[in-house]
Prior knowledge:
Elements: E1 4-8, H1 13-24, E2 30-33, H2 38-48, E3 55-58, E4 61-64, H3 66-74, H4 78-83
Parallel strand pairs: 1-2
Antiparallel strand pairs: 1-3, 3-4
Helix pairs in contact: 1-3
Amino acid sequence: xxxxxxxxxxxxxxxxxxxxxxxxxxxxxxxxxxxxxxxxxxxxxxxxxxxxxxxxxxxxxxxxxxxxxxxxxxxxxxxxxxxx
Length: 84
């Protein structure tokens, strides 16, 4: 299974939804809380080109935010991405 990384903040509803979706699929993930260190948010923004959370990577593939993750799940494309 591909490693999953998710950049979050504690009070982000979309972050919680993304983590719930991944957890419901039995997917372990590395969570990086960008609220505790501005340098972490800058790193996320440099990698993603976006400033909002969550920002999610599956392996080296930048998925995007929760809406993007959920769209992959609904289309049946998330499981193959995770397994690649």
